[in-house]
Design brief:
The complex is a heterodimer of chains A (about 575) and B (about 575). Chain A is α/β, with parallel strands linked by helices and about 575 residues long. Chain A has three domains: about 170 residues, ABC transporter transmembrane region fold, CATH 1.20.1560; about 110 residues; about 180 residues, Rossmann fold (3-Layer(aba) Sandwich), CATH 3.40.50.300. Chain A has 19 helices and ten strands. Chain B folds into two domains: about 180 residues; about 250 residues, 3-Layer(aba) Sandwich (Rossmann fold). Classes of the chains: A alpha/beta (about 575), B alpha/beta (about 575). Chain B: GO terms for molecular function: ABC-type oligopeptide transporter activity; ATP binding; ATP hydrolysis activity.
């Protein structure tokens, strides 16, 4: 059973009494809304035609009383549907966030955050509306139609048959319109996309447009898209404007037909004056549920694609189970060495396309290693493998003999400190940026690490110091952000630091500052860094040159300078700051 | 039919002008809006007459005539309604198109530095959705002037005609319902505001959890975050329930209150029928009119909300609605020959900041290729940009003896082609990307940039769509299309900033040969850190780290500059491994 279904059933099970109440309320609404026309019939047949006053006031109060009850029942109906819908939404989202925890790390490199967020928001909302305005609405409407047909049938079976014949006719007209309208709307949505895309494209390329003086050309194209859009909107507008008048016209024709049939001379239907008036009322009420039935059907169709996307999300491959009993302090007991070894690892995203091939390396305690190579040779993938985020296709990476992939994520912060090339601001205060809202990290630890990276003074100058909310991207400069990233990585004092191109976006003065901070961590950490530059910021003991996913050469910088021509010439160019 | 043209307008910053602009459509809306909402009472009136015709046993023929009249009248009334609906929608449609055009024109005529200052991307998407909201509000307002205003007046007047006393007594509950709705609005507003806030907060949290998923995962925070997330969901659910129940479920209650007068209608109206003052038909007509009016009144609160919302949007887009601008395209440039002379040029992006380049001197004329090179951050690209005249500069840049800053922006764009690091491709065909609207044959220019082979592999040839930002092409192909665009505009001066970083060495050499042979009318300035081809070009400007400049031919620089000769030799030994697909990612 799919996770969505499970969530829905879970909500139904735990709210069984609410569901029963909902069924009751729906039946109430359907039955009650049939009563006002009956009262109208009685007013005419029992008071107006025989000219009797006595029951008139009773009827008047009964009429408003029923209207009041309908109002109350409708209130409860809406409320219960809303609550159930929201509970289902909550349940599905909870499942999704739990899924996100287990999902394979590759998912994030192939899906943009925007798309994933819209799985959580738009698609789940679509599922909600499928339930609330789709399925429940459909049931209510079907009941309403049945109720009206029965009411009319009780007046006259002939009129009942007429109504029954009417149903498919109205329904097919409605569907024909709705289908055309949907088609026009889809056409229009594509064009709206084009119109909007043209704006963002113009802005992206504004420098080029201006340098060729092509503002006119771009505007001309924009006007063209606007005009196309205008035309499709006209089409939508046509269907939109014409549908409801046609339905009203049909209604009038049906009323005329009934009146003629029940005229004195014909008296074909054999019903009283009150019944005629009530039938007119009932038939008028018939159109609304038929119309919404069509819309509901359409909504359900649209929501199904949302369900499919959410189901696909639930079907994404997950990480294997971790060995939850593993603890950081057991893997790396205090005072013991850390040996990180790559045992013939190969990794591929797709069958037959190796990103990393047969890498073998053993890193000793506190060793400083730099991985160099062109963009796209799998350096970052290698880091993800080291941290056990990805599972190698072949081979394994171990710390003191323990496979990193088996280590539960919750223990990793005590083992690895990871610094990315750009700092990701999270929602929260300055302190949260470092602790990531991990309660086990004390304020002292945060202050200590802020001091270590030399940001104490700056943080103190902020409005609320460590408790200042970081709500603007410009609160910290590029360099300060990178210092925060380092602070975030070392706050738990992990023995292994992984630095991924951390100075890629910085100028040389800030780079020096960062290097000087990192120098202080040298003595107690194994440091692995990735660089597209050969002369790493931290003097390394070992340089690993990667090419096409393989280790092309490995050795101390001095040795490589001697025996690797590519390394030698590249390092010279770099010293001349040429590349 | 429609005029099918989208045209600029005057004074777009006054909202009234949008109705004035669509005079014809607005006049039709008024005509159909009035006539529909006045003739609408014919429905209930004739429905009453039909009932009476049965009650009094009229002859079959008169019943049939009455029935046909009724159907026809409804037909006419609904036809008027169709026109009203259609023209109101057309008004919204053209208003939206005009607003969009005006905003677009405004943005495209802002200067580059103005655009740099604004966070345009975000702003724009908001402006777009604001146009929609604003127009939607304008449409609803226009509709409801008739469908609520005129309609309620029509109903009340005709009800008064039927019976003054009953009408006055029965409709007193309608304003009560409206006042109550208005009063409750503030409470509802409070709850729905809390809900919306929480909802956007949760959207932020969701985005945070996904965007920073790797950071959270590496630091083992995911499961703790999930627990918190579920708590937040719980909170959101509570707030949503409160807000939704109040917002959606109150309407039936308002409706009941507005309908309270039905007691009076039934009792007094019924009495009147029994006393012979009204027919049964008149009674049913009156009930139908009363019900319709009460229903309309109970919905009035919603209308005010949407108009308020659209006012907020209007305020946000208003700054972008300025007079329509047209670029001045008069030009006075010498197309016969080109002479560029740069003297003591210094340049910085902002006043007071240190110069990025200092004291640059060189001259060039048509048919020459001048190479510009230097280390990272030596100011190569800056030199290229300063020659565009987009920013103020110190010193002199003269083209054909006239100072660059004295030419108009349009003239500069007609003299200088510039190709920067980014290919800046549009999601259009190859042909349109190169010609940008000018109808010209691009076969030869495609050959010059060695694209002819690539084109053979494409089924649609020059009409191949390149995708968003050229995503369907490789990096090297994108660069060459952008180069073809610069060449096709064949200006006096063509500035190419590192156009070959994604192109392999052999192709690069071939293109340089083509440039030398086929673009004798232009002066080409080639900025690059790859020197392999520099031995084949006319002059070279070397920007040193200490802001000094070496200038001369390749051979002169080999002798004069140690840096230049070292780099040239190193790059030659390194060479070879620069094939195109490996470097796809590097731009």
């Amino acid at each position: 059973m799919s996770t969505i279904k499970k969530s829905v059933f879970k909500v139904i099970k735990s709210n069984i009494w609410t569901i029963i109440l909902l069924v009751f309320v729906i039946c109430g609404v359907v039955v009650l809304s049939l009563i006002p026309p009956q009262i109208l019939k009685n007013i005419i047949d029992q008071s107006l035609v025989p000219k009797k006053f006595d029951k008139l006031l009773t009827f008047a109060f009964a009429y408003i009383g029923i209207l009041f009850l309908i109002g109350v029942f409708n209130f409860f109906k809406e409320a219960i549907i809303t609550i159930l819908g929201l509970k289902i939404t909550k349940e599905i989202r909870s499942e999704m966030i739990k899924k996100l925890e287990r999902i394979n790390a590759m998912f994030f490199s192939t899906n943009s955050s925007g798309t994933v967020v819209s799985r959580f928001t738009n698609d789940v909302d679509a599922i909600n509306s499928l339930f609330t305005s789709g399925i429940v609405g459909m049931i209510v409407d079907c009941f309403k139609i049945i109720g009206i047909v029965i009411s009319i049938w009780m007046f006259s079976s002939k009129l009942g048959i007429v109504t029954l014949l009417l149903l498919p006719a109205i329904y097919s007209i409605t569907r024909a319109f709705q289908k055309r309208m949907l088609k026009a709307q889809i056409e229009n949505r594509i064009l709206v996309g084009k119109v909007n895309n043209h704006i963002s494209e113009s802005l992206k390329n504004v420098q080029m447009i201006k340098s060729y003086s092509k503002e006119d050309y771009m505007e001309e194209n924009y006007t063209k898209y606007l005009l196309e859009n205008y035309k499709t909107v006209e089409k939508v507008n046509f269907y939109d404007s014409v549908y409801s008048p046609i339905i009203q016209l049909i209604r009038a024709a049906v009323i005329s037909f009934i009146v003629v049939l029940s005229s004195k001379q014909l008296n074909y239907l054999g019903i009283s004056l009150g019944m005629v008036a009530a039938s007119i009322e009932l038939i008028s009420n018939l159109f609304a549920p038929i119309e919404s039935l069509g819309m509901e059907l359409q909504n359900i169709q649209q929501a199904i694609s949302g369900i499919k996307r959410v189901n696909d999300f639930f079907d994404e491959p997950e990480d294997d189970f971790k060995k939850n009993e593993l603890r950081a302090e057991n893997i790396i007991p205090k005072g013991e060495d850390v040996i990180l070894s790559f045992n013939d690892i190969t990794f591929q995203y797709e069958e037959g396309l190796d990103i990393i091939q047969n890498i073998n390396l053993v890193l000793k305690q506190n060793e400083k290693v730099t991985f160099v190579g062109r963009t796209g040779v799998g350096k970052t993938t290698l880091f993800k493998l080291i941290m056990g985020l990805l599972k190698p296709t072949k081979g394994s990476i171990t710390i003191n003999g323990i496979d990193v992939y088996d280590i539960p994520n919750s223990e990793k912060r005590k083992i690895f400190g990871y610094v990315d090339q750009s700092f990701h601001i999270i929602k929260g205060t300055v302190g949260d940026q470092i602790s990531l809202q991990d309660e086990s990290i004390t304020r002292e630890q945060i202050e200590e690490v802020i001091d270590f990276v030399g940001l104490t003074e700056y943080v103190a100058s902020l409005e609320n110091g460590l408790d200042t909310m970081v709500d603007s991207d410009t609160l910290f400069s590029q360099g300060q952000k990178q210092l925060l990233a380092i602070a975030r990585a070392i706050v738990t004092n992990p023995p292994i630091l992984l630095l991924d191109e951390i100075t890629a976006n910085l100028d040389s003065i800030i780079e020096e500052k960062i290097v000087s901070v990192l120098q202080k961590t040298r003595d107690a950490h194994t440091i692995l860094s990735i660089s597209h530059r050969l002369s790493s910021m931290i003097a390394s003991d070992t340089v690993v040159i990667l090419e096409d996913g393989k280790v092309k050469n490995v050795g101390s910088p001095e040795v490589l300078l001697e025996n690797d021509e590519w390394y030698r010439s590249h390092i010279t160019l770099e010293k001349l700051t040429w590349s | 039919m429609s005029k099918m043209k989208i045209e600029p307008m005057k004074q777009p910053d006054k909202i009234v002008n949008y109705w004035k602009k669509e005079k014809f459509v607005v006049a039709l809306i008024v005509i159909f809006g009035l006539s529909y909402n006045i003739t609408i009472i014919l429905g209930p009136i004739y429905q009453g007459k039909l009932i009476d015709s049965i009650a009094y046993g009229n002859s079959l023929s008169s019943v049939i005539i009455l029935a046909i009249t009724y159907t026809l009248l409804i037909g006419i009334n609904q036809l008027l309604r169709y026109f009203k609906r259609f023209y109101i929608r057309r008004f919204a449609n053209s208003t939206s198109a005009t607003m969009r055009l005006m905003i677009y024109n405004n943005i495209m005529h802002k200067s580059i530095s103005e655009l740099d200052d604004e966070n345009t991307g975000n702003l724009m998407t908001r402006a777009i959705s604001d146009v929609d909201l604003c127009v939607e509000g304008m449409r609803k307002f226009t509709t409801e002037v008739f469908d609520t205003g005129v309609l309620m007046v029509t109903y009340i007047i005709s009800m008064l005609v039927y019976d003054v006393k009953i009408t006055i007594l029965s409709i007193i509950f309608v304003p009560i319902a409206m006042v109550l709705a208005e009063k409750l609005k503030t409470v509802i507003y409070k709850y729905s505001k809390e809900y919306r806030q929480k909802s956007s907060e949760l959207a932020d949290i969701t985005y945070d959890a996904i965007e920073n998923s790797m950071i959270y995962r590496v630091n083992g925070m995911e499961s703790k975050n999930s627990v918190k997330y579920i708590e937040e969901l719980e909170d959101l659910q509570d707030k949503a329930i409160k807000a939704n129940i109040l917002e959606n479920s109150m309407q039936p209650i308002y409706n009941v209150i507005a309908m309270l007068g039905i007691i009076i209608v039934i009792y007094l109206g019924g009495t009147k029928v029994i006393n012979g003052g009204w027919t049964v038909g008149a009674f049913s007509t009156y009930v139908a009119m009363f019900t319709a009016m009460a229903f309309k009144a109970s919905k009035a609160a919603k209308l005010f909300n949407s108009v308020q919302k659209s006012q907020v949007s209007w305020k946000r887009i208003k700054p972008y609605l300025e007079e329509y601008k047209i670029k001045d395209t008069s030009s006075n440039i010498d197309t016969s020959c080109t002479l560029l002379s740069v003297k003591n040029l210094s340049f910085s992006y902002e006043d007071g900041k240190g110069n990025i380049i200092e004291n640059v001197n060189f001259t060039g004329s048509q048919g020459e290729i001048i190479g510009v090179t230097g280390s990272i951050a030596s100011g190569k690209s800056t030199l290229g940009i300063s020659l565009l005249g987009l920013y103020p500069y110190v010193g002199s840049i003269k083209i054909d003896g006239k100072e660059l800053k004295d030419y108009s922006e349009y003239e500069r764009s007609q003299m200088i082609s510039y190709l920067g690091h980014k290919p800046q491709l549009l999601s259009d065909t190859i042909y349109n990307n190169i010609t940008l609207g000018s109808k010209s044959d691009i076969t030869s220019v495609l050959k010059d940039v060695c694209f002819d082979k690539d084109l053979e592999a494409m089924r649609n040839g020059q009409n191949t769509l390149v995708g968003n930002s050229g995503i369907k092409l490789s990096g090297g192909q994108q660069a060459r299309i952008a180069l073809a665009r610069a060449l096709n505009n064949k200006n006096k001066i063509i500035i190419l900033d590192d156009p070959f970083s994604a192109v392999d060495m052999k192709t690069e050499e071939k293109i340089i040969e083509n440039l030398k042979n086929n673009y004798n009318d232009s002066l080409i300035i080639l900025i690059s850190h790859r020197l392999a081809i520099f031995n084949r070009i006319d002059k070279i400007i070397l920007l040193n780290d200490d802001k000094t400049v070496d200038y001369g031919t390749h051979n002169e620089l080999i002798k004069k500059s140690e840096l230049y000769s070292t780099i040239y030799n190193l790059q030659n030994t390194e060479g070879g491994n620069n094939d195109e697909h490996n470097k796809k990612v590097s731009i």
